[in-house]
């Protein structure tokens, strides 16, 4: 069976600086895959190239059998490959409701009302703050809003880029509980994180990235079973 997301030999970067050096990665339908690595490993660059925000220099990206290697980011969104970016990137001067509605601008607009209800079922706090400006919300609330905005597009696969970054330990636990809930609902998730321990607790498989390349991949048990890998790459 072909993977929902299949990345082969992907290369890319900024200007003359190569960041991605032949990345291979797959995500199956309904699978949660963790992409681990330190700052500067190339994780966010990979996300942005896969999602069409930056061009691929070489290699291929296939999503649900469709070649998106050179696709415009709007085509990527239309296909159902949705990224919740690092740093949340909510629109601070727009309300919660306006931010959520923008999530369905390109995809699933005709089901906006039904999807709002689904988002509110997951994030009751957002429903309580519909008229609040996003820029006045706490970091945890903005992260909920960013994920809710992504869900408004009815993703086939949701890329979560550092969703726990900058959150308190209590909110980190809440965030990983939410990701577990999305997984149990059958949504495919590519979880890009530095929080190794909690990521491996919920992932079906994991990749470890270093200097723009995949160094290790396997199940959480396989990664945690290697003393060398745990010390050198996982910080455990």
UniProtKB/TrEMBL annotation:
InterPro entries named in the record: AAA+_ATPase, ABC_transporter-like_ATP-bd, ABC_transporter-like_CS, BCAA_Transport_ATP-bd_LivF, P-loop_NTPase
GO molecular function list: ATP binding; ATP hydrolysis activity; branched-chain amino acid transmembrane transporter activity
Segments traversing the membrane: none
Keyword annotations from UniProtKB, A to Z: Amino-acid transport, ATP-binding, Cell membrane, Membrane, Nucleotide-binding, Transport
Location of the ABC transporter domain: 5-236
Gene3D superfamilies, A to Z: P-loop containing nucleotide triphosphate hydrolases
Family annotation (SMART domains): AAA
CDD domains for this protein: ABC_TM1139_LivF_branched
BP GO annotations: L-amino acid transport
Family: Belongs to the ABC transporter superfamily.
Name of the protein in question: Leucine/isoleucine/valine transporter ATP-binding subunit
Origin species: Thiobacillus denitrificans
Lineage: Bacteria, Pseudomonadati, Pseudomonadota, Betaproteobacteria, Nitrosomonadales
